[in-house]
């Protein structure tokens, strides 16, 4: 890294501090841990609405460094590393400001024993090492090739945390108990193994979402009775842990695979049902397994829009901007989504930070409102 590139990274850290994304206690760790030391030679830049192009450091150094030292996600792998895939991003170096906010919520301190789920590039692992010491950090990565690359990067900067290849949802009981657990990938169900491997009073910070809206950052505190409870503290977007990743998005524009099509007209404006992250988050909590996309007819000069809903059981719904509804399958997905939006409106449109989660051996509950005394 040249002086210019180092200066750009320093400016990035300074801007995060000024914006409030970077807590003062983490500033030194970020300054000592340049992001570029953990980004591979080849990264992937968005190229049009549904594709990526390779950007290689040795071929396009100026663009490569500009992306690495920006406050943006850097995609480092497509299709789990399998050639010839559809071009889905499956590993990345997260947006620096999101990493900073997440680590701020984690509140890791000297002496803490930390488990990280999802080593990825190794950058956040290195930041944790700078904060608590590399001998107190255990990091688990499910992808062997990604883990190997991270291990080399960490070794080059003189850090030797405990790196494991395996399913991060299982944690690492051998090295428990932990004072902090940080997941760099989103879950829809918090694995109870994480709670069970923590000391009482420990904190767990993880991105959390539903198939409809993957947008919450959850902060849990572990209680003496082996449960954990906490609330959503921020709006973030991270890739899913691989064991909970939704199947690839349907490319069908039909209304289902079986059953009679049911037509109706809605008075609920479909373009407004999911018009904010808070609305989509709340709706997603009440319509399990439902996913959506918005479609525009590019050949129509008016830009005709419609909402497509589906679940993995074969139910589908198409809702046009004029209110025409076509549904098929076991569920009336549009009716469920519209009712969920009406519930959210009736509840006073609470932000996602108004929801909390309780996790125990029997599973998890998502609740609205303050915790019981």
UniProtKB/TrEMBL annotation:
Residues of the region (Disordered) are 244-263
Q: Where in the cell is it found?
A: Cytoplasm
Provide one Gene Ontology cellular component: cytoplasm
Task: Give the matching CDD domains.
Answer: AdoMet_MTases
Among the Pfam families in the record, one is PCMT
Q: Which UniProt keywords apply?
A: Cytoplasm, Methyltransferase, S-adenosyl-L-methionine, Transferase
GO MF annotations, alphabetized: protein-L-isoaspartate (D-aspartate) O-methyltransferase activity
What the record says about family reads: Belongs to the methyltransferase superfamily. L-isoaspartyl/D-aspartyl protein methyltransferase family.
Q: What is this protein called?
A: Protein-L-isoaspartate O-methyltransferase
